[in-house]
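Researcher: Re-running this chain for the archive, since the previous output was lost when a drive failed. Same request as before.
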Amino acid sequence: MLGKMRKKTPLAWRQLMKEKTRLAVAVAGIAFADVLMFIQMGFEGALFEAAVKPHRELNADLVMLNPQMQTLFAVKSFPRERLQQSMAVDGVKSVAPIYISLGQWRNPETRLERTILIWGVDPTQKTFKLPDVNKQLDKLKPLNRVLFDIAGRPDYGVTEEGFKKTGIFETEFNGKSINVSGLYVNGASFAADGNVIASDQTFLRIFPSRKADSIEVGLINLKPGTDIDKVRKQIEALVPDDVIVRTPTQYAEIEKTYWANSTAIGFIFGIGVTMGFIVGIVIVYQILYSDVSDHLAEYATLKAMGYTDGYLLTVLVQESLFLALLGYLPSFLLSIGLYQLTMAATMLPITMTVERAINVFILTVIMCSISGAIAMRKLRSADPADIF
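Model: Regenerated structure tokens:
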């Protein structure tokens, strides 16, 4: 009779459903721990994604850099002639230089200055993969014209509605008069809260101390069918060691590695995930421990009937897995909503990913399994001799 009942409804499920208030508290606690892990992972992923997004949007097969380059926040320059030397390698189709720097953008309404990242490019070449930028390259050809990243922070004073209404926006950059001639979308990052793209000539006017023969990034495009890694090694063998050559993906990894390992950001978010994990273990353990304590006589009876500790452990593990699933589902849905709110408020690309959803679910299962294993110590003390 008992065996048939078990097949229809698992004992672990019946145990959980018997105390619905306790179950609700457990589910809420696990959901809270999961949301904490989701939020910490989400922020970390969004910030890293924002930091490397410009790198991935570069229209190039290879990228030439200063070997000391770690981040756009403190970019290093190298001689422009190194980029020209790469043209001697068979398979190289074209090259394009990029100037990068941080400057002070003045909000014309508040008169406050704010740091912004500027990219100086050749307006005759498609430096980025961004369609919004490539359609407006002609607007950069006149001096003192820039394209403004409307996905940055609103503190710079440029609004999409206002610009579309007037078609003009005048301000100062490093004390020099400039005009916004177009908008595009990229987003804020670790390096700066906003971005602008200018022609190389406008860039050099804004930064008069900069030399035209010193650039920050060199883009290298190859002929179709060329072995990218082979050409990369040939270029590095040809030019002096004051530059390195990487793929755009590798370039992005340099930036990501800097923020993850050379700053406290990776550690802080890691601590947040760990705390959520520990909180979940404590909550589930308390629930399972209370459940075992309240039903200790029943468990002792099962032992007297011949059920082993292994079977009872299976019941406890099943309870923990049911709790993991019940707590995970609402946390997953809630986290998606919180991601949307956060993205709207911070402009960060925080979205739910399959990898993150799976990772948090695995952590939830591990969390609940550990709690069940710890609570098993109480279950082992269920001695039939104490009952009969």
